[in-house]
Amino acid sequence: MISKNKSVISVNLFFNPSLSVIISMVFAVVIGVGVLGGGAQVQAADYYMATDGSDTTGDGSSGNEWQTLQYSMAHMLGGDTLIIRDGIYTGTENVVDTNHFPPQGTNTNWTIIKAEHDGKVFFGDPDSISTDRTFYVENKGDSYIQFEGLVWFGGCVVGAVNYLKFLRCGSGNNIVNNVGMLFRNSVSHHILYEDCYAWGGGRYRLLSYKSDYIIVRRFVGRIDATNTEHDGRLEPLGGVAFYDSSNCEGQNIIIIDSDTGDYWNVASLVGAFTLPNGGGTGNFFRGCINLHGDMSLHGQSVGFSDTNRMDCIGWDAPSGALLGYGTTYDHLTIGNISTWLSYGAVDGHTGNACTVQNSLFVNISAEYGALKNVALSDYNYFYGNYLDYFNTNQGVHDVININPMTNSLKYLPRIEANSDLSSKASDGGDIGATVMKRIGINGTLWGEPGYNETTNESLWPFPNEDIIKTNMKTYLHPQISGERGFCANGTGLYGGNITLTSYIWEYLGNPCPDEICNYTTPNSNTLQDFEDEILWLPGGSQDTGGYGRGWGFTWPGAGDMIEIDNIGANGTNHSLKLTFASENNNQIYFRSNDKTTDHMPEADGANRMSFYVRFPADFPIQPLPFRYDTWQLGTYIHDPNNWLDIHGATDWDDHGIHHYYARLTTEQVGDGWVKYIINTQPDQCNYGGSTVPPNITHFFDEFGRFYFHFGEAAGGPNPTKPYTIWIDEIKFYHDDGFVGGQVHTGGLDDDGFDGEWFSDDSDTTSPSRSNPQPTETIASGTTQTTISLTTNETATCKYSATAGASYTNMTQFTNTTGTNHTTEVTGLKNGLTYNYYVKCKDASENTNTDDYAITFSVASTQGTNNSTSSKGGGKCFIATAAYGTPLAEEVKVLSRFRDNHLLTNYCGKIFVKLYCKYSPKIAECISQKPWLKRVIRLVLRPLVNLISPVSARTRMIGK
Is residue 859 within 8 Å of 778, Cβ to Cβ? Predict the structure, then answer.
């Protein structure tokens, strides 16, 4: 009895909770050893930063944000995320430099610095011409840091820093005298630039110097005014350059509108996609475009080898030479270029070392022709060139004098099906470039699965293009406009705003196809919700006689502007933005067409009308009822029997039936928007001998115009100018509850808005989403899977790996024509969790504004880690990996201790939970490295010896 009590006392002393904590800490040290092969970390945290935050009282939480970048980064741990609110951040405390850099993450838990909204967080002053850098870091080694959606002025430069990702980031400047680079890495490896963009001055848009394993994916660059003179010499100028580097990838790069050669003072032009100086091997450019610029497509120094250019386009470039030593050019589309007198469009230079095949050459005016010093030409097509070959033999399958513009080349990114050039290449594909799909799986670094594969995701519309255009338009120069080329205002041939996509696809003069420019379909429930962005600009195509269709000011003056703004009523995307600035202008009109008989066919037979107006916060809206003598939105009501009599009274002061509605109601709908509903049947149907029937058609004047009057012109107060008002969603209603709408077919002065009748209780609800698949962990080794969801109505769904992406910039599901939506995702890796965010749009154009997440994981590779506890404690992953078998006595000792003691108290349970979360990846690394197994066994030996007698005593007590 006494001996038994002594045993109990010794066991109780040994197995108290504090001892469990100590043992847990020892286990934690063991897990820490895993850093040798890729460590683990406690759950990462999200922090916030804002221009109105505080470094003194803020704690980094949402609603109590920090204020400056350097303070925020200093208070983060590796693997944390910093979310930066929109705004401009200036001053030295917002500079990223060697002494102020985010904390290092790991290969499984990256540190993230991201904009809350892409393209709306700026470091440095957008209006400044300062050369001060806002990002300059050196000697940080392997960092595992990801930057998202940020814009740096003055450049983003790293040296000897590895494992970085720049996603959807921008860099620009307004500096002419600048030899710097907008994005640059040197002596670095494994850096990804994805969906990034750069503009302004400087030598290169992006430069990799003496670096390896760099990927530039879907990058847009524009070269503006540049002077590279410094220290008495000039430097060269280029787009994206892999300088003295190897194993670098340029994927879907676009260098565009660099047509400012008259403002360049440089030593030489080295090319849009170039390998200047030094040497290297294994560099690829795939699916790249150089369009409308005073820059050649490609230059390459003699030291480079194993270089490939595939599916690249060079068009409308006066200095369009491609210089290659040991280069393979495959599937090129080259046209409308001239070159330096000593080169051909493609020039093998000395040694005739390059190969050109499956390519198209059109209108090359170079003295030395399309191909010079080329070792092998085959399956190439030539048309309209000054000379096709110089010191080059015609290939067996080369074809001359077939005009590709006849039926083959309507759009630069593709060759038309069943045309002269389709299926004629040596590989069975099309002659010329095909730039239709995204190259490289999103987020992949060099060497990772899918990093250089052509995916099934469409490249068009080009991702992030709205943000790229918005920020590039801000470029400031006294002679060069930032609003040129694809950044210009105006309407594309397809009927919507000019975008990067429409600009490239319409460059040969054909409207962008519906399946490519698919973001312009107008809402069929409205006469004009401005999604199609058809408008007049003052001084533009407006017919001064009042006969043109569209929008116009009645008395336009200086400063008055009609624009499309990126806001809309009821969550729509666009509205008409009206800025009244001139003294006499207070009204605007729209008209249907150029006829004087049918006026507004959509309104014919309608007995009411509605529209939304958004007012400034301090605009003097008068109380209802809505009468001429207070304040109103008004129009002329005319005599249908006499279209020229718009008053119905002999004296203007009598007002007649001018500006007079009997029934007008309003609804305050929030965010400054007011909905106006106009009913017919005026209470003074007979006035001055005129009779006004109950028909909305007759609210239009003899030119088919409907007027919106504001301020003093509407009989109310005269607000201080300038002021801005927005209009959206104009609808006409019929007695039977139907609303007239329009399906716009494009063009000016055509047959008008083609109207149809739609139900008054039209669908205004976006699709609901449910049944996401998969939702749990899928088998180890899975590299691709099908994601799916269900909607409550027929819809078109899109997805993105990035939260908050706009529906336009997301990728469409492969099968998405009904209520079941599926698509394949690829490039999956063991041990990772994937989030895909989904938005859907129904047939009435109602689009989800919130993300719907499909979340799943891929199981880690367990190897021999198959020892499962009978008590559900999980697996001894690290121990099993170290000893090579779950049957090892040491593994059994550790497993029993975990089940019998750690899982019996709170601290132990917390430890086991963290251990099970992070140890599998460590175990996987240990199992692959014999030397690491030995190290872990040495570390575990004292722990096993410590708990072995404890386990034995526990078994004794249990007997």
Answer: yes
The beta-strand segments (E) located in 244-402 are: 249-251, 254-256, 264-265, 269-275, 279-281, 284-286, 289-291, 298-300, 303-305, 307-315, 322-323, 327-337, 346-347, 354-357, 360-364, 371-372, 374-378, 381-383, 389-390, 399-400
Measured at the CA of 80, the angle between CA 75 and CA 81, to 5 degrees, comes to: 100
Are the C-beta atoms of residues 119 and 149 closer than 8 Å to each other? Answer: yes
Q: How far apart are CA 785 and CA 794, in angstroms?
A: 24
Residues 6+ apart with CB under 8 A from 63: none
Q: What value, to the nearest 5°, has the Cα angle with vertex 189 and ends 187 and 191?
A: 120
d(CA 715, CA 657): 14
Torsion over CA: 235, 236, 241, 244 (sign): negative
Question: DSSP readout, 919-949?
Answer: HHHHHHHHHT-HHHHHHHHHHHHHHHHHHHH
pLDDT at 924: 66
* Number of alpha helices (DSSP H) and beta strands (DSSP E) in the chain: 9, 61
Residue of 305, 225, 220, 217 lying closest to 254 (CA atoms): 220
Residues 6+ apart with CB under 8 A from 287: 251, 252, 310, 311, 312, 433, 435, 437, 439, 454, 459
Q: Three-state SS for 653?
A: helix
For residue 426, the tally of other CB atoms under 10 A from its CB is: 14
pLDDT digits (tens, 9 = 90+) for 287-324: 999 999 998 877 777 778 888 889 999 999 876 666 66
Bridge partners (DSSP) listed for residue 760 = none
Tokens of 161: 């820093």
Q: Which residue has the tokens 């440095």?
A: 124
- Cα separation, 205 vs 215, in Å, equals 14
Task: Identify the bridge partners of residue 581 per DSSP, sorted by sequence position.
Answer: none
State how far the Cα of 3 lies from the Cα of 703, in Å rounded to an integer: 112
Sign of the C-alpha dihedral, residues 564, 565, 566, 568?
Answer: negative
Q: 567-614 pLDDT, tens per residue?
A: 777 666 667 778 888 877 777 776 654 333 334 555 556 666 777 788
Helix or strand (DSSP H, E) at 5: helix 2-14
Q: Which residue is listed with tokens 């705003």? A: 497
- Strands (E) across 124-248 are located at 135-148, 150-153, 156-167, 170-172, 181-186, 189-194, 197-200, 204-209, 212-217, 220-223, 226-227, 237-243
The string of pLDDT tens digits covering residues 732-759 is 665 443 333 332 222 222 232 222 222 2
| Peptide bond between residue 886 and the one before it cis (omega within 30 degrees of 0) | no
Answer for the pair 743, 524: CB distance below 8 angstroms, yes or no. yes
**What is the β-pairing status of strands 170-172 and 197-200?**
parallel
What is the Cα–Cα distance from 124 to 129, expressed in whole angstroms?
Answer: 10
Q: What is the pLDDT of residues 820-863, one digit of tens each?
A: 899 989 888 888 889 999 999 887 778 898 999 999 888 876 44
Q: 271 forms bridges with which residues in the sheet? A: 238
The pTM score is: 0.58
Contact 913, 861 (CB under 8 A): no
Structure tokens belonging to residue 115: 């904009």
The rounded distance, in Å, linking the Cα atoms of 784 and 790 is: 20
